Amino acid sequence: MFTNFEIQNVRVIVVIFILFTIVSCSSTQNDNTQNWTADRLYNEAKEELNVGNYEKALSLYQKLETRYPFGIYAQQAQIETAYTHWRNSDSASAIAALNRYKKLYPNQTGIAYALYLEGLINFNDRKSLFSAITGEDMAERDAVAGKQAFQSFKNLVTIYPNSIYTPDALKRMNFLINVLAENEIHVARYYLRRGAYIASLNRCKTVLEKFQETPAVEEALAIMIMSYGRLNLPDLAENSKKVLVLNFPKSPYISYDYNPKIKGGLPKKLRDQVETTWREEGVFNKIKNLFEERFF
Fold it and tell me: Within 13 Å, how many C-alpha atoms sit on residue 292's CB side?
């Protein structure tokens, strides 16, 4: 004999099952893509992407992956999902999709695409280092995204030197080198203003060790001269000045006192300008043709 409590529980379970069945049937009946082939799902998703219906495109790509996980379209859908997330202003989901793709297809031709797209997403990360549209000074922002972008581009040009994405990646890498070096100088200048001379020196040494070919080396030496002077280490200050004179005999930092309160330590008229602003309007349209490649 069942107790009233047990009978009541059975009734609840039956009701839930019936409701679930009804909803499931309703969802299936309302899904007009139920009998679509992989080819149609892919082409429809692509069309939605091209006209800017990103949420609809993502939904179709997801259905394609779910229904045809081992078909020739699944790989393409996964990597285009990442691009669609980026176009939909969801960088985090785009990066996650790319990481998933690289894990599933480590030796496929689409890896070059994935590395390039990963680099672009970080390069244009407006929440951290970059703002391609507004033209902000990238050297004065958090360098994490810049370092990640540089690494992605570096992996691309190293592993796939003949890729169609490599020329643009190289241009961005050359720009990033100066930006990352200037970022170290920006922080060193901040520490110098705060009286944190050791921290300032450490940033300058990073420039000398990792960014030897950049214009930032000149200002790094000027900061080192002042920092060693403030630490009452005249010999080291003098050695730094000798290195500055030897490598930059016409440097304005030799004749003028360094001022950590202004960018570059000197008035603009006295020093060369280092470009740390990347202005690029219409970045999606500019590189759109690079994202039309199929990997099957």
Answer: 8
Q: What is the DSSP letter of 179?
A: H
Residue type for position 189: R
What is the domain partition of the chain in residue ranges? 35-106
**Per-residue pLDDT reduced to its tens digit, 243-280:** 999 999 999 999 999 999 999 999 988 887 776 666 66
Superfamily (CATH) of domain 35-106: Tetratricopeptide repeat domain (1.25.40.10)
Give, to the nearest 10 degrees, the angle between helix 72-87 and helix 110-123.
10
By the 10 Å C-beta count (0-12 exposed, 13-18 middle, 19+ buried), 21 is classed as exposed
Each as own residue / partner, the long-range contacts of residues 245-252 (CB below 8 Å, 24 or more positions apart, any chain) are 247/217, 247/218, 247/221, 248/218, 248/221, 251/218, 251/222
What does the pLDDT look like over 182-207, one tens digit per residue?
A: 999 999 999 999 999 999 999 999 99
Residue 39 clears pLDDT 80, i.e. is over it: yes
Q: What is the pTM of this model?
A: 0.77
The set of residues, in sequence order, having a beta carbon less than 8 Å from that of 191 and lying 6+ positions away, is 197, 199, 200, 203
Query: Hey, is 267 helix, strand or coil?
Result: coil
